[in-house]
Amino acid sequence: MTIAGETPQQGPKAASASVVAQHQATLRALPFSDTRDFDDAARGFLGTIENAKITNAQGRVVWSLEPYGFLSEQTAPPTVDPSLWRQSRLNMHHGLFEVVPGVYQVRGLDIANMTLIEGDNGVIVVDTLTSIEGARAAMELYFKHRGKRPVAAVIFTHTHTDHWGGARGVLGDAMQAAGVPIIAPNFFMEHAVSENIIAGPAMLRRAQYQFGPFLAKGVHGHVDCGLGKTMAAGAVALLRPTDLIIATGDKRVIDGVEFEFQMAPNSEAPAEMHFFIPRYKLLNLAENCTHNFHNLLPFRGADVRDALAWSKYLGEALQMWGGKAEAMCGQHHWPVWGRERIDTMIRQQRDLYKYAHDQTIRLMNHGLNAAEIAETIRLPQSLEGAWHGRGYYGHIRHNVKAIYQKYLGWYDANPVNLDPLPPVASGKKYVEYMGGADAILKRAAADFAKGEFRFVAQAVSHLVFAEPDNVAARALLADTFEQLGYATESSTWRNAYLFGAQELRQGMPKTPPRSSMPRETLAALRTEQMFDALGVRLNGPKAEGKRIVLNWSFTDTAETFVLNLENSALTYVNGAQAPDAHAGFTLARATLDEVIAKLTTFPDAVAAGKIKVVGDAARLAELMALMDEFPRMFEIVEPKRTMVT
User: Fold this and answer.
1) Residue spans of beta strands (DSSP E) within 437-568
2) Of 105, 165, 256, 496, whose CA is between 20 and 30 Å from 509?
């Protein structure tokens, strides 16, 4: 710990006595003698890639488990919660595994799994991992051990990037041209876009705190992400589904294999589905029944997930397939075998989400706010002692706040929280009220020594926002975050605390500028979605008093649009052309994709005859000059250095 006037240490510190005592209590409380998960995680192993190492065409490593070799130690170090250490070690299993004869999984080459289901003539690929490079490596590993087979279909279980980003590594141009089906739940594209593109810049920065990609791997840093190790760092592209599953009970026969589907919207993802395969007696509940308590609102940001609906979908799955499945695999973690164990796990997961929902609402209706509920609620012992219900990724203490937000929003009804001062202004007043920086640091140092880290973090954060260059304040807040990170069972909490500490000590990571959206992803977007994404880039104050009307006609999609800037808002009308437009553009939609992907420029495309222009083309340049470029990084644990208008 550093006090005022001292030069802060930049490296990680040891775990405090209070953190070590907390870990000892965890070891006594949880059933560490139950090792069935370790047996299941290793079962059916066929082969792997050394250290799960994957590189791209330029030789850059996009995935490797080699830096996590320290997890070979069975005993948790003082700087990692022993329950999280256990989960982190389980997530080290990697390679190709047989679930049942004819069904295989690639695990540990990404945070997510690829499931491969053999049909009469080919293989059906369920989820394609995050990166194109990872998906290619997974397919090559499968072919090595099972022989080369044509891809009969691709299934996306839901809308999160780690389940569709590598699709181009499974389906090449020839396979897409041949019409290999891509099957997904209804409204897949709408939600894949809204969750990953509209709010993408802010979400990606926040995800650095959730997943910890810039943390050093080790006992003082990154150990896991709960669902798996971390996010892959390769190329990503979105492919549009060709077949949508609409309703529970829908069936498909794919390469001779019958699939029975169940819809699960607004659960772990806004568009998600489960399936059962009678041939293999296999149940796949996507990401709704995994080996941890999942997030109801991830730190990166998302729509709040519906815990009540989530529970009901698991109950419905039991009604549909309970007692039928002999193996259950998900799109994270390892499978479970045996009808009784499968049904027990589903029931416990069903009740985990139902308990969290109902008890949050019960306490809410007693008048408790979100923070008070998080302090009050306790899981029953039957769920508390189930390893797959532990909060490695989602945690009961932040999931109840998500439930509260879903029903009542951010405001707790106390007028003091209706319109509080922003962090810098309130920080300065707090420092003044508490007697200045030296007084705060003296009191905080004493509380730090007593292990009262939560309040120390609150108090010293005010000082950092009031005096962001106060070296002692930054050092003490970093030390406090670090101890909170060492203490927590949740991987996402650990990553957030430790990354906050790192940024206070070292500043934000230096990262290259944000790359352009891939042409493949742009091509998968509807034109309306692309204009929606453009609208959120418009700098409203700069657009004050301007009116620009532009007609668009796309020759390859037979679409027409009017794009309208008025009242500092960018709107559009589909299927129309404005007679008073300032300019009009006729082009292939594919050409617009190339311009946005920066494969060509608008003037070059005009010069090449790919775009025909009528009217004043300068008005488009005027509109584009009003667009913000979003930074890849922005301050989170300290004041914004550049104010945004």
Assistant:
1) 548-554, 559-566
2) 165
